[in-house]
Amino acid sequence: MPETAAVTSPSSRSERRLFVLDTNVLMHDPTALFRFKEHDIHLPMMVLEELDRAKKGVSEVARNVRQVSRFLDELITGASKESIDRGLPLPELPGPEGARASGRLYFQTRPIRVNPPASLPGNVPDNDILGMALTLRQDHPRCQVTLVSKDINLRIKAAILGIHAEDYYNDQALDDVNLLYSGTRELPADFWDRHGQNLESWQDSGRTFYRVRGPEVSHWHPNQGLFQSDADTAAFIVRQLHGSEAVIEILRDHTLPHHAVWGIAARNREQNFALNLLLDPDVDFVSLLGAAGTGKTLLALAAGLAQVLDSKRYREIIMTRITVPVGEDIGFLPGSEEEKMTPWMGALMDNLEVLAPQEGGEWGRAATADLLSSRIKIRSLNFMRGRTFQSKYLILDEAQNLTPKQMKTLITRAGPGTKVICLGNIAQIDTPYLSETTSGLTYVVDRFKNWPHGGHVTLRRGERSRLAEFASERL
User: Fold this and answer.
1) pLDDT of residue 197
2) What three-state secondary structure class fits 10?
3) Which CATH number characterizes residue 14's domain?
4) Residues 146 and 295 grouped into a single domain
5) DSSP code for 117
6) Sign of the CA dihedral with 258 first, then 418, 299, and 377 last
7) Are residues 139 and 263 in the same domain?
8) 345: which of 202, 247, 310, 319 lies 20 to 30 Å off by Cα?
9) What is the DSSP letter of 295?
10) What share of the chain is helix, strand, coil (3-state, %, to 5)?
11) Which residue, 173, 174, 167, is CA-closest to 25?
12) Whose CA is closest to 302, among 174, 393, 418?
């Protein structure tokens, strides 16, 4: 993962650079001050003014701004005017991450001498930051001055004025979203010929296990689905990994009607992998990625109802999703927290109609609907701080709109016996300044892929209807 926008080429590693930070970078990541290694950082006075205006409130942005202010206060406390002019040394990043910065932090102490053209349109704060970058470029002709901003339009304006501008890369979980872990792996056709020597097999509680050794094993991950292109061969899941040795288990085939979960049978290989993970009590965290219509919510709800109402493994299902606008109050909708969240939970209601039995007449359907609603609770993400969920089946829908920090806040709410399910489509991100590589969903998929109690599946095939599948391909 790239450390900063600074480490983009070999030449940039050998030369100290001066980075001008836009306000949105600090709003997005309060620790950005410590992420630029040996390079220097400059904060225009306009950035401090914008931080001051955004510090009030309970939103995630306001909390980040207050954290930035605390960092700056710690750096500047006890510093003289002369030391501020010389630049404040940046210490090690507080906390377990321990990123080491050896550059200096500079504040704007002189007025802007090189202003953008008077005819340049746009708001005053952006133009003020551009003017500061132009002034620094004139003052430091031998140093590359780079404007770092999450605002694409500001970077375009900077390029027009000849200012080198970059996005903030440190929050990227991956360089390329195509490298994201898919949760499944196709075995080569000659796999068993090369890895079948000294093969051990045994059964335990009706489950069949194999101990496999060979070079292919070193590329596997815990709870990864293994398959071969031949539809007649069994699918496997990785249970244990020790270097080039692994224990794999034959998957339960949920495509068969008698293995259906709450009336739902898997329609493809990836859905079968997903149901196995969702029903596994040893897997505490499951993430499902996929486009609309791939069955993410339906599979998660079916597995949840089976484990809440049938096996009594969990007490209830908690369904939540982020509301748009992000992190703001959910508004003046009437009713309780659950009633306010209902308009955001259309996907839940649609899937419950599929899962609720249709026989038994109107009274039977009404009784089933009441039972389901009593065991499914809808909660808002805005009130998750400080809570602990015990023995709950927690479903987070539209998780692609969460930042890594918000995702951490949610997952750390899980108490003993709780299972967390994250659903989302990273191609449909609605949150400002988030992309496919910086989404919290991408972040947790990458960070949890080697944890033995986590699992992930990317669902690729739409199963909603032939109309929906044709539309997704052609429109």
Assistant:
1) 77
2) helix
3) 3.40.50.1010
4) no
5) P
6) positive
7) no
8) 310
9) -
10) 40, 20, 45
11) 167
12) 393
Contact criterion met (CB below 8 Å) for 270 and 458? yes
Residue 449 C-alpha from the chain's centroid: 13
Instruction: Give how many domains the chain has, as a whole number.
Output: 2
Helix (H) or strand (E) segment spanning residue 208: strand 207-213
Residue 39 lies inside a defined structural domain of this protein: yes
The reported pLDDT for the residue numbered 1 is 35
Tokens of 335: 């009713």
- Token representation of residue 127: 């133009």
User: What's residue 94's pLDDT?
Assistant: 55
Query: Which residues constitute the domain of residue 299?
Result: 255-474
For residues 197-219, b (16+ Cβ closer than 10 Å) or e, as one string? eeeeeeeeeeeebbebbeebbee
With a cut of 70, list the residues of the chain below it in pLDDT. Answer: 1-15, 93-101, 119, 122, 231, 323-349, 357-369, 382-383
Q: Are 7 and 135 in contact (CB under 8 A)?
A: no
Q: Check residue 314 and give its pLDDT.
A: 96
Whether the ω angle into residue 325 lies within 30 degrees of 0, i.e. cis, is yes
Beta-strand relationship, 225-227 and 376-380: unpaired
Question: Cβ distance 169 to 2 under 8 Å?
Answer: yes
DSSP structure string for 350-408: HHHHHHS---SHHHHHHHHHHHHHHHEEEEEGGG-TT--B-SEEEEEESGGGS-HHHHH
CATH number, domain of 456, equals 3.40.50.300
Q: 461 is written with which tokens?
A: 């095939």
| One domain, residues 409 and 291 | yes
The residues near 145 (Cβ < 8 Å, ≥ 6 apart) are 17, 18, 20, 133, 136, 137, 163, 164
* C-alpha–C-alpha distance, residues 446 and 461, integer Å: 22
Residue that finishes a domain, picked among 166, 186, 205: 166
- Asked if residue 49 is part of any domain, the answer here is yes
Same-domain status, 276 and 149: no
> Where does a domain end: 166, 198, 223?
166
Q: Kindly state the helix (H) or strand (E) to which residue 337 belongs, with its residue range.
A: helix 337-341
Residue in 42, 35, 25, 50 with CA at minimum distance from that of residue 139: 42
| Token couple for 174 | 């991956």
Angle, helices 346-355 vs 296-305, to 10°: value is 60
Residue carrying structure tokens 């034959």: 250
Instruction: Please indicate, yes or no, if residue 269 is contained in any of the structural domains.
Output: yes
